[in-house]
Amino acid sequence: MTQRQIVQVFEQYQKSRMQFVQTVADMASRPQNVEILQQAGVMSLLRPLMLDVVPSIQQTAALAVGRLADHSDDLAEVVVREDILPQLIHSLASQNRFYKKAAAFVLRAVAKHAPELAQAVVTCGGVDALVVCLEEFDPWVKEAAAWALGCIARHNASLSQSVVDAGAVPLLLLCLGEPEIALKRITASTLSDICKHTPELAQTVVDNGAIAHLAQMIMNPDVKLKRQVFAALSQISKHSVNLAELVIEADVFPAAVACLRDPDDHIKKNVSTLMREVAKHTPELSQVIVSCGGLAAMIDFLGNSHGHLRLPGIMMLGYVAAHSENLAMAVILSKGLLQLSLCLSEEPEHHIKAATAWSIGQIGHHTPEHAHAVAAADLLPRLLELYMDIGSSEDLQAKCKTALKSILQKCTDLPCLEPFLYDAPSNILKHVLGQFSKVLPHDSKARRLFVTSGGLKKVQEIQAEPGSVLQEHINNINSCFPEEIVRYYSPGYSEALLERLENYKPA
């Protein structure tokens, strides 16, 4: 065989290898092909090609492995089991930017599926290798590395801590300052994934100056970047008063409130989540939200949205109202109860109804004025209906019960309470009768109305165990009226009178 023929053989072999990896990479991009490729044992065939002497074959083989692992957690496990990760990471430092991008994609594709797979990436030294990639000049390599680090960090605090310990945070913040929008998006998302687990992790990110970088991008016109920025600020704010105050001090508001009118649903949801996480901590932080127009904007947002988009806003109203009488009254005066009433009626999901019931309870439990506002909005019968509905979830029933109990204990609007005498079970009824027993001794008009409306008669029909709280309230109510009136409305009294009439003999 001549030298020319030998060269032709090697060229043909190289061409075949390239054609194979390119075909597999193309096929792996379509989910319907993944199972067929898996059954053919493609991973074992790709492994040696990732060490090929030809860089383009190495890169394409890595791309194929990444696409397969991305589509299937089973194939991601095969990547770990076949010891592909160590050889991938080992060769990462000496390869070009195209290979590094493909390798970071493989690590991301493996890590995203489960904490165990992400831990396998960490154990093989994947995090350190990815952090080195963050120092690359090429923005696409940085983006691929940041994305992979986010997929590792998102699973739990331990994995997130491994990303922090590898020195990723300062480099990620440098990436946040790069001009490429795609890199900014992925970096903000990764910072969010790191922050979300514990106050300590969030504090580490904040200590490196993350809030100032994120705050500068709130008004960026890129929709996807704004989504990630607000998500990251939310994850920082949720952990502690101190972290929420740092977000406030970065002048995030009122610019964030204006974004509740953004056309993008994800931005609006993330903004309302941020407002919820800030407002929940203290009355002072809630007041900041209210003072910059956040309450009115949130109520408008609830009126123009539906489903899961409403949930953070519903809870934000509850957190604001829970802090003080004045803040709860601010929610009422901003027509917050009207919107919560609509949410309770319109939303089919029980967890959204439960959050709404909770927020209503936070508004109404402060004073008789607050309870009256809830009663005037006709929300008490609706809460009772949901509590007694056997189709309601346990959480919904529990939230309705708690809200009813807290509001009824403050409600002195007796006409609004009277329907409960006919419909409420004994565990709710005792709170209703408790309010009657407090108000009736001091209000003669209320006592007269209670008799003429049939309320006193209904009380006499209630069956209560002797010595129970319910019986005690009934006795206290009866003591507000002359004995003959109580006797007159007691069950069986009319029959007794008729019997006396039949037995009566005129003189």
Task: Report on this structure.
This protein is an all-alpha fold. It contains 36 helices and no strands.
Brief descriptors of the model:
507 residues, mainly alpha, 36 helices
Reconstruct the topology from this structure.
Elements (H helix, E strand, L loop, with lengths): L2 H26 L2 H9 L2 H8 L5 H17 L1 H9 L2 H9 L4 H15 L3 H9 L2 H8 L5 H15 L3 H9 L2 H9 L4 H15 L3 H9 L2 H6 L7 H15 L3 H9 L5 H4 L6 H15 L3 H9 L2 H10 L7 H13 L1 H9 L2 H11 L3 H15 L3 H9 L2 H10 L5 H15 L5 H4 L2 H4 L2 H14 L4 H9 L2 H7 L7 H10 L4 H6 L4 H11 L4
Helix pairs in contact: 1-4, 3-4, 4-5, 4-7, 6-7, 7-8, 7-10, 9-10, 10-11, 10-13, 12-13, 13-16, 16-19, 19-22, 21-24, 22-23, 22-25, 24-25, 25-28, 27-28, 28-31, 31-34
Tally of DSSP β-strands:
0
Distance between the termini: 147 Å
Question: What's the rounded overall pLDDT mean?
Answer: 86
pLDDT below 50 for ≥5 consecutive residues: which ranges? none
Summarize the main sheet.
none
Rg from Cα:
33 Å
Instruction: Return the structural class.
Output: mainly alpha
Q: How much strand content do the residues show?
A: under 5%
Count of discrete alpha- or pi-helical segments spanning 4 or more residues:
36
Shape: elongated
State the share of residues found in helices, binned by percent: over 70%
